Amino acid sequence: MRFKNNEILTVVNRQTEYIPQAVLLDQDGNLLEKPKAIFKKWFEIHSLPNGLMDQDLCAKFISFCTNDICKGDDSRVKDVFQQMDDDNDGFLTLSNFLNFYQNACKNRLNTVWKNL
Fold first, then answer.
1. Pair 21, 43: CB distance under 8 Å
2. pTM to 2 decimals?
């Protein structure tokens, strides 16, 4: 948005109907198909053409979700790779990424909803 100096803005608080959050996991703790499809699409957008995500791309994804500056050497990126890069090759696979979100839905649901 491009505002000019001394421009007057009118802000109105609208009442909206309450919409409950959708369930993301099934009874066994697995991702349901709709959220899984969203997370898969995110991975496809933010990964390399070979289906892998490196630390720099992971940082860009975190920036996308949080509107925060994130670099490949950020502690958040390092934590994700430490937990999810199961073969320690420096790349996340789609399976690693989906497992990350499945775990996050169990342990940090509010954060997942902020991403969504």
1. no
2. 0.79
